[in-house]
Structures are given as C-alpha cells and as structure tokens.
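Hi! If you just cloned this repository, the fastest way to understand the data is to look at a raw example. We've pasted two of them here, unedited. The first protein comes first, obviously.
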Amino acid sequence: PQRIYYLSLEFYMGRTLQNTMVNLGLQNACDEAIYQLGLDLEELEEIEEDAGLGNGGLGRLAACFLDSMATLGLAAYGYGIRYEFGIFNQKIVDGWQVEEADDWLRYGNPWEKARPEYMLPVHFYGRVDHTPEGVKWIDTQVVLAMPYDTPVPGYKNNTVNTMRLWSAKAPNDFNLQEFNVGDYIQAVLDRNLAENISRVLYPNDNFFEGKELRLKQEYFVVAATLQDIIRRFKSSKFGCRDPVRTCFETFPDKVAIQLNDTHPALSIPELMRILVDVEKVDWDKAWEITKRTCAYTNHTVLPEALERWPVSMFEKLLPRHLEIIYALNQRHLDHVAALYPGDIDRLRRMSVIEEGDCKRINMAHLCVIGSHAVNGVARIHSDIVKNSVFKDFYELEPEKFQNKTNGITPRRWLLLCNPGLADVIAEKIGEGFITDLSQLKKLLNFVNNETFIRDVAKVKQENKLKFSAYLEEQYKVKINPSSMFDVQVKRIHEYKRQLLNCLHAITLYNRIRSDPSKSFVPRTIMIGGKAAPGYHMAKMIIKLITSIGEVVNSDPYVGDRLKVIFLENYRVSLAEKAIPAADLSQQISTAGTEASGTGNMKFMLNGALTIGTMDGANVEMAEEAGEENFFIFGMRVEDVEALDRRGYNAQEYYDRLPELRQAIDQISSGFFSPRDPGCFRDVVNMLMYHDRFKVFADYEAYIKCQGQVDQLFMDPREWTKKVIRNIACSGKFSSDRTITEYAREIWGVEPSATQIPPPNLPRE
C-alpha cells in the first residue's frame, strides 16, 4: 500500500494508558482486574506523566491524526523528535508564571521501544565539493539519530501503527578525530553538544525564534526520516523489478509526505539532495518526484509566526541545501518571469529568498513551490491563505490550494474523557458514532425527549461536581458547582484575547458591587494556558488574571456569585477533566487570526455552548449547529479590514463606553494590584495605543452577548436543548472525517473500515 508519513516537530500525546485500553476494547476488563487486586484504576492513571511533546493546537492535531489514521486502517507513520524535556510545567508563584523543566522520562517510558538497529547518521556543517562525478557534501559533523517507536492502536480494528521519534546520539569517535589529540576527557564531555539537539522542545506557540539549535532540530528529524522512508521504499517487494531498486519513478505512488507547518520544510531540499547527489536522478525528474510526494499544511497567517531563516545560518549549517534552494528558486522565478514579463515586484513577492539587510529564506514559499497540495485548516483560513498570504501563488496554480477543516478524535475527546455522556448517547443511538461521528445527527430526534434532556443535564452536573472536587483537592479552591462554568483554555496570546475575557470579568464584578441585592447568574470564570517564557505581554496577562481573582474571590459582597480561577499547568490531561465540566466555551480571537482552533470542537462535543467570533472553525461550527444555537458576536473579517482602513482608535471606545472606561481605570490605577499600582501599565498602554487585535472594538458586542448567555442559562431546559443540538451537529469535526479528506484528496489512498484479523487468528 501507499505509505503516509506525517512529519511534525510536535506530537502532543498526553497520557497513553487509558487511550490504549479504550482502543483495544479492554477498559472494563482492566478495570475489573485491577479492582480485584484492591487497586483503583483511576488512581493508577493519575500516576502517568503526560507526553508533552507539543505546545498546543499543532502538536495535539498531530496526535489526533495518528489516532484517526490507525482507526481508518491507513499505513501511516508519525515522525518527530523524542524531546528529553517537553513543554515546561507551569507553576504560579505570587500570581506570576514560573517555568519548571518537564523531566517526563525520569521514571522511564513503558510505551516506547528503542530501535538501535535502525540508527542513522545525520550530517551538519562541512562544505560542498563540485566534482566531475557529481556534487559531494564533505567534512561534515555527524550526529546519530536513534529511533524510539511508540505503538498507535486504531479503535478496535487490530491495526497498530507506529510513531517513530528520533533521539540524538554522539558517535563514539565524536571530537576524537586525529586533529584533536590530548584532551580526551573534554572530548567525551563535548558529546553533550551533539546530544543537545533532542534535549528540549522550543516552547513558542505561533511565534518564530530564529535559533540555530531549532534549525538543527528541524534538519535532524527530516534527514533521519527521509533515510528511513527511502530504506523502506527500496526494500519493499512492490513496484519496479530492480533487485536493489534504483528506479524512483514509482516513489510518489508509494510514499506521501505531509508537512505539519513549515517546520519540516527541509524535506523538500533534502529529498532533492538524495535524489540528485546520491541516487543520480536527473534534476527535473527529481523535482517532479519531490513535488508529487510532498504536501504542506499551513497553520497560521500571523506574520511573526512565519519561519524566515537567515541565509548566513544555512551557509554554515547546511551549505548544500542552500545551493539547492537557490537553484530551485531560480527555476521558479524564471517560470514566473516568463508568465508575467516585467513584473519585478511579483518576482520579489514570490521569491523563496527575501532580499534586505539580512537575506532570509522564506520557508512557507519553499513549501508552496515544493508541494503538490497546500491546505489551510478551516474554510475561512483556507480562503485567507488563497486571497492574501499566498495570493500570488494561488493565481499561478489555483488547483494546488485546498481546505481541510481540522478535527479531533472522538475516542480520547468523548469516550475516554466523558464516559457518562458517551453512555447516554449510545443508549439512544447505539455505538456506531464512535467511528462515524456523523451519526450523532440521530440525536436531533431526541431534542424534546424529557428523559434524554434530563440525562444530558445530569451527566454535565456530575462532571462539574467531579471537577470541583479535583480543583479543591489540587488547588484548595472552593467553587460553586451550580454556577455556570465559563471556560477559556488555550495558550496565552494577545490574538486569543484573554484580555477581553478579563474585561468581562471586571465588568461583571463592578455590576455586582454596584447593586449587591440584585440577582445575578452565578459564574465561575476559569482561564488556563501557558505563556511562552519570553513573551512578556502573555506573562502580564496571567498576572492580571490571577490579580483579578485575588480581588474578586475574597470580596464578601460578591460571595459565590462570581469566581475567577486561573487553571495552573493546563495540559492534555487537565483538558480531559476541564472540558467535560464546562458550560460555556470561549473562542474569542479577533476574526481572521485563529486558523482553526480545535479546543472549540472538544467543548462542542462535550456539551458546552460556545461564545465566539466568526473566526477559524467557529464559522463552520455555527453553520452546522445553526446560528440560533451559538453565541456569535463581534466583527467579521470584513469589519476588521474596514476598521484597519479607517484606523483603529481605542480611545473612541474608552470615551464612549463607561463600563469599559471604569474597568481600564481600575487596572491602570492599581485597584487589582494595590501593592504595585503601576504593575499593569504595559497592558493598559498596549490596549490604548498599540492593540493589533482590537480588544475594545468587540467589547460592547461581547458584553451584550454574555448577557444573552446569562438569560439562557436561567432556563436550564432550553439551555440543555441547545446543548443537545450542538452535540448532534458536532459530527463534522471528527478527525476521522478530516483524515478521510486528506487520504482521498491529497494522498490518493482510500481509508478502510475493515477489521484485520487479530494476531491470535491465522491470516488468509
């Protein structure tokens, strides 16, 4: 079969024990067996460390995709890096984020198997020699890539795929070559330099930091993986009759490489290098093979997130790849110039090399020219990709551009994390929805069924009680389980507008204070997420949230009508507890900034209602559920563009909206930071004078929309009916549907629902 290779620098897997039991259909058996030993399975599950080898959406998407690819019976491999330290653990000290290393391998990892027999060399530095026999990359430094395999079981289909993560090892002669005589001890200590490549995950989400170690990581995973792919291709029995297989004609028919963002973009020049320099394939033939093999997924349109590597860094680290990129770019520009004679500006815009004070390689442009398919991750995002980010490229090759709206695996994000809800659903429509989530549509027949309404509400209440108990036990916070659980969990970023949420919390607080006798819908506002360690504003936002919490939660006038809680160390295993307990999901990014979002889908599937902007997949979620079952507010992409043309002036809103002015004045006067009144001046200054994400412009609509949320929450039956409609319409957002589309429209393979025989039965 054709093999699918999903290349990603991040795989945010979380815990594996319960997922393995669910997919093998062993959960009840294990539960019972462990119980008879006098143990509690849940207690055991809590001991496992999360595999936190990702930052957020992009890394978690890769994990969901692995689950779906196995469940759909695809011959798929996930390839990445086995980071010794994953995403940092977050501690909150005096209201500030403090990072702590995630030593997740400290007690070993029972799910991985080292494969030293498949260890491969990866080359760095050196120089290029152009000889009559061809091009040689010589005098390189070698680092060994040691593979570790983790099984990826499909759901009850006896398929087990592989996630192969590479770890860096120094070769035994490292730094002990002839020129380095005396210092043996130092040479052995210097092995760490090579092995640092797989030491730690870069903790940036949607932000590019041009560090050499990061470029090394990107080439390391690509070089090791491509050697593995080609070894497997050559040793396969199918295809050409070559005994040792030197014919690469069939390569794209047997191999599909999916690039998860531009991080593995070096696959394109590396595959060219192997084909041309090593396998002696003709350049044009090699380029055709490369393009037919690779496909690229774009994950963001934020300019600060796009990878643009200095040419000088390439020159030193990967000199041959730089030559290849120059040659590819020259041919590409010749083609463009032939089609648009005299359009110099178009050539500049479309070049892979950006000229300027520091020449840079635009990795997104490299991916677009080197792939046969380019996709965005939600309809609105794919439209933005075509109409702005890669507009020139879309005009050149419109057939290359596709949309593949993201999805989530219903195994982890329903069965595993919310068994109560899964049971109530299965009772009504059977278990077919687990592998065909579109079957949830059948629940529309039960929207007015009183027992079903009661059961869905009861499961939610149980989940809230359980999560309340967990928060009390872990963080000693008392919360009112009958309050509305209003949740925003995601990485902290200005574009995700946690600050808008803060302004609502302050406004609610001020309304309660100004009329304490009035009746209010009680809320527990929970905000969680990590800030990149170097992102000052994000860290200030965390401090603001915790400071608001300190004031609000200890105010006797407020009582248990409003609590503001910061969820510490948000990660996959905490999401599995928080999401099933949420009533309200906040998805409030400025329209046009969140490529898709996937947390939004998890909340929808788990019985929360969404308050959100028309951004990312929210657009399609509202379309599926019906806008009347969704709390949509704020500017659309067109409104944001119009406001940009007019010029956004925060002062106008500050002057016009008294509740907004009061909130901002409280933040800036030190009402929430009495011991350090100037604490939040940077935040206020940003909001007032250089807010790229226009928080104030959506404030009024947001507060009004939150009022409608309160109104509905006071009618539990109507609220639950909308919840049921949302769950029933969430089927589109299964990663099984997403992967089926990738398979058919990009990789050219057909998924199969057939169960292969279990290993204890003889195969045909």
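Ok, and the second one:
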Amino acid sequence: KMAAAGPAAAVAGLWSEVNRCGQNGDFARALKSVNKILQISKDDVTALQCKVVCLIQNGNFKEALSIINTHTKVLTSDIIAFEKAYCEYRLNRIESALKTIQSASQQTDKLKELYGQVLYRLERYDDCLAAYRDLIRNSQDEYEEERKTNLSAVVAAQSTWEKVVPEDLGLREATYELCYNSACALIGQGKLNEAMKKLQKAEVFLLFTLICLQDVTEEDIEAELAIIHGQMAYIMQLQGRTEDALQLYNQIIKLKPTDVGLLAVIANNIITINKDQNVFDSKKKVKLTNAEGVEHKLSKKQLQAIEFNKALLAMYTNQADQCRKLSASLQSQSPEHLLPVLIQAAQLCREKQHAKAVALLQDFADQHPANAAEIKLTMAQLKIAQGSVTKACMILRSIEELQHKPGMVSALVTMYSHEEDIDSAIEVFTQAIQWYQQFQARTNYGCYVFQPKSPVHLSLIREAANFKLKHGRKKEAISDLEELWKQNPKDVHTLAQLISAYSLVDPEKAKVLSKHLPSSDTMSLKVDVDALENSHGATYVRKKAGKLTGDNQQKEQGQGEVKKKKKKKKGKLPKNYDPKVTPDPERWLPMRERSYYRGRKKGKKKEQVGKGTQGSTTAGSSELDASRTASSPPTSPRPGSAAAVSATSNVIPPRHQKPAGAAATKKKQQQKKKKGAKGGW
C-alpha cells in the first residue's frame, strides 16, 4: 500500500503543477509535467489531451497531430475532433480539416467557429456567410465583435472576387477592422471615393488604438498601418494616380512588414504599373511574390494574377522559354482561361510567327466555344496587322453574337470600304437589319414579343441609306429611305433625302413627293435675323456681293474709276551698274554652260608656285602678284578699302562684264585656302 501511495501522490502533485502552469499560461512547463505523468501512465486520456493542447499553445502543430494520429484508440474523434481539425487548419491542410469537422458526431460552438474559418479559406463564401450568421444568432459571449468582423470579411470577399452586390448587414463600424472590410466591399463595387473615406476612418481608429497602448514606437505604428495604406495605394492606382500609388507602395516596402501576403500584393501591383518599362525593378519585385507561405495568404485569383504577370514579365524581358513554360502551366491549371493562350500568342508574334499565333488561337476557339468571341477578335487584329483585311473581316463576321452590334457593323463597313468592296459592306448592313427585324425582342413569360423598329434598328437603316447614296447605289438607298419615312412620316430630313435620291432616278416621283414637304409659311423657324445678318460670315458674304455688284455696274455703264494696279517693286541693281554698257546675255547661265567658258587649266598652278621654305621669296614671285599686272581687271573691293574707278575708264563693271579674269581670281582664292589649311609651322 505504501508503494502504491507513492506514485499516486506524485501524479497528484504533477496534476497540480499542470493546472497552475495552465492558468499562468506557461505551457512549456506544463508540458514537462504532463510528460512525467505519461511516463507513469502512458495511456492516460486526460494527460494525452493536455499534451496536445500544450503543443498547440506552443505552436508545435505537427507534433500535436502526430500524437493524435498515433493514439487513435484512446483519443477518439468525439474527444479530440476540434484539436485535430485545428492542427490541420494551421498546417494548411484545409480539405482534411473540413473532413474532420464534418465527421465529428457533435458540432460544438468551437467546431462551428473553425468551420467558418475553413470555409473562408476554401473560398466557399455563401456557406461561410450562412455559418457566421448562425453563430451570431445563437451565441452570446465576449467574441461577438470578432464574429461580426469575420462576417464583414466574407461580404467583402464576395464583393471583390465574385462581384456580388453585398447586402447591408447593419453592422456598426466601431472598429478599424470593420471599417477596413467595408472599404474592401466598396472597392469591389467600384465606389472608390467612398472606399477611400472608409480607409481614412479606419486609419484614425487604428491610430487611436495604438496611441493608447504603452511602449509603441513610430515604426510599430507604421507597420500596423501598412495594410490600410496598401489598400489606399490600390485605390489610387485604379483612379489613374499611378505616381502617388507607386510612392506609397515603395514606402510600405521600405518598412519591411512581416506579412508576406501584403508584400506579394504590393510587389505585384508595382509590376503592373511598370509594365514593359523599368524591367530591372520589376525583376527585383518578383522575388517578393515568391516568398515562402505566400500561397496560403492570398486568394486563388490573386495568386493567378501574380502568375500571369510573371509570364508577361518574362515576355517583356525576352525570356521566351520561361514565358512559354509559365503560360503553359497556367493553361493546364485553368484550361478555359483566356490569358494564358493570349500570352502565348503574343510571344509568338514577338518572334514574328504570326501564322502560328493565329493557329493557336483558332485551336483554342474550337475547343472553348464560350470564349471564342474574344479570341476571334484577337485573331482579326493579328490579320489586320499582317495586312490581310479581307481575312480579318471573315473572322469578324464568323462571330455570330456580335454580327448585329452597331460597333461591329461600323468596323466591318469601314474595313470593306478600305478594300473598296462595297457589295460586302452593303451585305453587312443588310444582315444586321434583318437580324433586328426578326430577332430583336423582349422576353415576356418565355414568349418573344417582336419589336423590329427599335432606335438601333432605325439608325442602322439610316446609316445604310447614307452609305448607299455615297457610293452611287441610289435605287437601294431609296428603299431604305422609304422604310424610314413610313416609320416617321413627319421626318422632313428623311423626306428631303428621299426626294433628292428620286430626282436622280425618277424626277416625276420626286415632284410628287415634294408636295409632302411643309410650306415655308407653316415652318416656324426661331431665327434672330438681325444677329444672323451681323454675324462674321454674313458680313463677309455681303461685302463680297457688294463688290461684285459694283463691278458689274461699272462694266454695264462703261463708267467708273479704273481699278488700281499694284505697283511692282523695282529690283535692286549692282552698285557699279552702268546703263551705257550692254549686260552679258549669258549672265544667268551656269559658268560651265556659257559659250566663252574654256575650262580649268591644269598644271599651270604647280609651275607658278615658288619652291623653298615657307616665308621665302622666289624670282617668280613678282609675276604672281596680280596687282602689278597692268592688264588684269580690278577685283571686288575688299572690306574697308575704296574701289575708285574713274569716270573715263573703259573697264566693265563686275555685274555686266564677261569674267575674263575669273579663272585667275579663282586660282588665287584656292591658293589662299590651301595656305590657311596648314596647322602650325
């Protein structure tokens, strides 16, 4: 008995220690005591359960789950369901956690709370919303504010990712979390200005909360505000204020927040601002999106957007293989998604393989008819870039759901007109008009109520008529104009067009129709005649008409003053102009084309140039001095010197003389140029 009493007393003491440590939050010390108990009694259910709780509190989720799985006979699902599901949830085994919760025989409040979290991570927002509503309705404890926050987060996610218009939950935005979630919901609806105001309100709430705490540094405050500032920068980016957004994004990155999800989103948004510019910065930012644990912090659509941007960045940096690899991986994950195949096609186009790009897009359109319209629009764009406008038109006309759209009709008509294929352009108009005649309707209890003469339909008929008139198809235009006039007999503009068209084809019919035009007496035109007469255009016309009338009267009467002729300016004459000397008749011809041109004399210059050192004179230097030659004609006066020519001189002035000494003057100038070209002695 004494031997039995010893272990029992020891176990009791250990349990007291476990209880005391648990109340103090010292789970590491409690774990040591629990391990001692299990050494005495290894299958003690309470001790095993306490050990699992201590491990969870210390963050050792793997070890805790291992103990649960190795003691399944003792730790049944009824006893340990919540702890097992929580460990799986924290280890990001979300599907396993869901199965564990659903397999539990009794759904406790703790399991319901965890169930809501699991549904949120699985992005099953409708089920999650129902779960939290049930919890709020049937729970009354100190965690009500947290449940409302989670509920608002679900509504924000629905608005952002599923584009569901959120209902008013009537939540009082008394905390920064509720304000932040409300702002996210508004962003999803596109109400950016309202969302910014909510974020500013959330910022004030958070600042007030942090200031009330002790030992909080400015860096701690900035780190806490980072998520709000990140959302503000996102709104600025959506509003087109990219410089402001970029500045705020970079400020957040400099703070080095611990939230890898926030960093990844900001880095991705900076890459989207950079696009194909500042590629080096984008390559650095991509590293932030590859941080460990990012995939558990972001939604599927966020992760997908990051992968798309990685593929585009690889294309911009000419990493063709990497681009193909990433886009192929994305396509395998989401076969029906458009972006992967569009990125692949863009990469092929960069490699000048347009035919392969078109073939790739055609294959995708055949496999996914639901997305064929957008793909075919891209194919048509590629064909236009190649100069195959007719083939582009054929592709566009194969998109049945867009054939009747005014934008598509306008594009096709423009393209066919560019190719001078007027028949095909008219055919496009005809098909669109027929579609509206037969199929444009409103659904009323499953039946079709035909409304063939909608405003769009009438607009198409009018455009078709104008096009046919422009290209000389008057008879075809007449039928369209008659149709329009029947719809609105009071439309004077259409009637005038119809009369104009008939006047070229059937004048008698035009006369008959002209009777339907309103008389000038019945037309009440609210026109200010005085203002019209005093307008600039009317004044100009009146003045011109007055001039014409005056000229006619002068011609008829043969009287009046002769119209003044403009005086021609006298041309400037040379300074040495002599009216007695006959000008050279060939002075306007180039020198080579004149009759007295003899060409340049080669070799003479070399014979005349004195030989010896620079600066020395030779015997022939006096012969080279043109000023000493009596027969040489005078050159043009140098600046600063007077060119004195006597009145009785027989020398011909420079402008009128034949350039007998022109060759000698040219040679002298060339010699001067050559001497000046030498650099140094």
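That's it. A detail worth noticing about the second one: Confidence is low (pLDDT under 50) at residues 442-446, 614-670, 672-681.
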